[in-house]
From TrEMBL:
Name recorded for this polypeptide: Transposase
Lineage per the UniProt record: Archaea, Methanobacteriati, Methanobacteriota, Stenosarchaea group, Halobacteria
Region spans: Disordered: 53-78
Organism (species): Halorubrum tropicale
Superkingdom: Archaea
Biased composition, class Low complexity, residue ranges: 53-66
């Protein structure tokens, strides 16, 4: 069977995995093939990369804050 790419439709599922096809399919037999499934959630590699980036950013911010705090205390001692 040959499928024309223009005939393919992308639909989003609800929270229970159901798809609303529309009224044009009412009272008709419909055959559906799942070609690809994409997740809304990041995979483990993406989560690990985001965690590393946040950790590095937090370390840099803590170091910057420490320097600023030291400068503020030194000015108070003057």
């Amino acid at each position: 069977m040959k499928v024309d790419a223009t005939d393919l439709k992308t639909k989003e599922t609800d929270d229970r995995g159901r798809v609303y096809l529309g009224t044009e399919y009412a009272n008709k037999r419909v055959t559906v093939a799942v070609v690809e499934v994409e997740s809304d959630k990041p995979d483990d590699d993406e989560l690990a990369a985001a965690y590393r980036e946040a950790s590095e950013s937090a370390e840099a911010l803590a170091a910057e804050w420490s320097e600023t705090s030291d400068e503020a205390w030194e000015r108070l001692d003057e």
